[in-house]
Every structure is written in structure tokens, then in C-alpha cells.
Amino acid sequence: AEGAAGKTKDVIDAVTGLVQAVPIYDDLARPAAKQLGKALETVAKTVNMALAPVGLMIWGYEQIQEFVSGKVAERLKNVPPEAIIQPGLNIAGPALEALRYTGHSDSLSDMYANLLASAMNVVTANQAHPAFVEIIKQLTSDEAKLMKLFANNRMHPILTVLERKTNVGTREQLVYFSTFSNSAGIAIPDNLPSYFNNLCRLGLTEIPEGLYLSEDDPYEGLESEPIVRQTVSVINQMPDVKAEIIRQIIRPTQLGQQFIRACVQSNG
Questions:
Q1: In whole angstroms, what is the distance from residue 6 CA to residue 27 CA?
Q2: Residue 110, Cα to own-chain centre: how many angstroms?
Q3: Cα–Cα distance between 156 and 63 in angstroms, integer?
């Protein structure tokens, strides 16, 4: 019993000593803690400054009402009053809510205006799908601009440059290269492959495997672009490696064509 009591006392003394030592360590750490606190305070102020304009960009009821009476009404100006109907709540509600956060982007708000106008026109209401609201919410401004290009020309040439190594396989070096988007005013051209991937993910476009335009001219123009020629040259200079150019197209799917009719083309 005395042995057990002795061990218990040793543990108590050890714990007590540790607790008594904590204030000493706390005092030593306090200057560092103060410095960390100042650094966090500086970061917090910077974050607040960066977020401050965001609050001003979020639309309120009056801005949304002005949008409806402006952009949406403009698209319905040539529609007979008897052909204007109440839009489905599963379209109008989410669309107006989404405008709170995307109204500042003209390319995206134009899509919501077209969608609402389509849903309010008895002739085009069947083209307005509730899923289109969620699709627009997942688009960037650049991707919205790209969808406008598919309204005029539904099939565009693109190409991918592969690095083919003997007995190893292939590796993509230049993916989905195109020039048709030059006229769209894309803010970040380097993101085009990602934009195409996202449009395909959303089911708006597709890049069918093995399908390409029968005419050579569009691809010869792409293949003569400096970045393509340079990529091919660099690959061919490596041992046991050969460049291979894959001709492809990107085009809207059936869903994409319906999306264009309802959200991209102004039917007013």
C-alpha cells in the first residue's frame, strides 16, 4: 500500500510541477503571441478591405426590379401582351436570386434576362429549362461569351498536339488549341482549354472523338500558328519522340442548342 501511495504522490508532484511551470512558458511565449496577434490583425484588416467592395456589388431588391423592368422588358417589347405569361417559379425565383451575385456581370446577366424573357413568352416558354439557372451560375463571363459564338456557328475547329514516344505512349502538350474565340473578347485566353472542359462538363458542348471538319483550310491555319509550330518543333527535337497533331471540333450538344435558344439569343 505504501508503494502504491508513493507512486501516486510522485504522479501528483509531477503534475503539480508541470502546472506550476506553465506560467513561466506562457511568459516566455507572450511576446511571440503578441507579434502573431498583430500579424493576424493586419491580415484581418486586409481581408476586410478586399471584401468591402463585394458587399456593394451584391444587388438588392431595387436593382433587381430595375433589371426586370429594363433588360427583360426590352426583350419582350415586340411580344404581344396576350402572349406574355407568368414564368415558372422554379425558373424565375432562382434566376432573380442568382442576379444578386451576378448582376454586375453583363455577359451573365444578359443570359438571365434572355432566360426570363423566354420563360415569359408563350411561344418560347418550352425552351426555358429550370436547369439553365444552375448552369449559368457555373459559368464564367468568358464562358458566356464563348456560348455566343456557338449561336452563329455551331461547329468550330480545334486541335491538340501530342508528344508520342516510342514504346511508351502519348502525352498532351497543347490541348484544344483554337483561334475562333479571338473575336469574343475573352479576358483570359490561356484558360480556354479549361473553359471548353467546363462547357462539356455542363453538357452544353462536346468534342466528339475522331470527328473533324472535312475541309483542310481551317486546320492548316491553326497548324501555322506560331505556338503550334514551336510546340511541334520542340517535340521533334527530342530523341525517340515525334509530334502528332489531332484535328478535332467543338460543337453544342442538343441541350446546348436549347440553352442557346433560351439564354443566349434574344428573342424579343
A1: 33
A2: 17
A3: 38
Report residue 234 as a C-alpha cell. Answer: 520542340
Distance, in Å, from the CA atom of 120 to the CA atom of 181, rounded to the nearest integer, reads 31
Residue type, 250: I
Architecture of domain 150-257 in this structure: 2-Layer Sandwich (3.30)
Global pTM?
0.78
Contact criterion met (CB below 8 Å) for 113 and 268: no
Q: What gap in Å lies between CA 66 and CA 72, rounded to an integer?
A: 9
pLDDT tens sequence across 52-78: 666 667 888 788 888 888 999 999 999
Q: For residues 207 and 193, is the Cβ–Cβ distance under 8 A?
A: no
Q: What is the pLDDT of residues 90-138, one digit of tens each?
A: 999 999 999 998 888 899 999 999 999 999 999 999 999 999 999 999 9
Q: What share of the chain is helix, strand, coil (3-state, %, to 5)?
A: 65, 15, 25
